[in-house]
Amino acid sequence: GSAFDGASGQYTCPVTGIYLFSITVGLSAGDRLRLQLKSSVNSVVPELTRGSTAHDALDTISRPILLPCEAGEKIGLKLLNGKITGDSTDMLSSFAGF
């Protein structure tokens, strides 16, 4: 659908309900990463913190998150610490909501 805005990286919830957000992020071997699911309405949102378990290559971390949302609420990701690895060629990172 049209709920995801690629320019802003935000998902706009079309109706009030419980949404499933899927996050996959690439990181380099030995790196640590801290992400927060960011909401335009709620101040309490989940965080994802993890270090890479790879010793000499790229790694990914994935997490599904259930979140109650209001109609029109915008959800996005905020990088708090670390560095996201990947680009449009290797497709290591993704963010989806439904």
Gap between N and C termini: 10 Å
The total tally of domains equals 1
Whole-number average pLDDT? 83
Low-confidence segments, given as residue ranges, are none
CATH T-level topology:
Jelly Rolls
Q: Strands of the largest sheet, in order across it?
A: 1-2-7-4-5
Q: In percent terms, what proportion of residues is strand?
A: over 45%
Overall helicity: under 10%
Largest sheet report: 5 strands, antiparallel
* CATH class categorisation: Mainly Beta
Number of strands: 8
Order of helices and strands: EEEEEEEE
- Cα gyration radius (Å): 14 Å
Domain C1q: 1-98
Protein name: C1q domain-containing protein
InterPro entries: C1q_dom (IPR001073), Tumour_necrosis_fac-like_dom (IPR008983)
Structural notes for this entry:
- Helices cover 0% and strands 55% of the residues.
- It has no helices and eight strands.
- It is mainly β.
- A hairpin with a 7-residue loop joins β4 and β5 (47-51).
- The protein has a single domain (4-97), classed as Sandwich (Jelly Rolls).
- It starts with a strand and ends with a strand.
- The chain has strands at 4-5, 10-12, 17-28, 32-39, 47-51, 58-69, 74-81, 94-97.
- The radius of gyration is 14 Å and the shape is elongated.
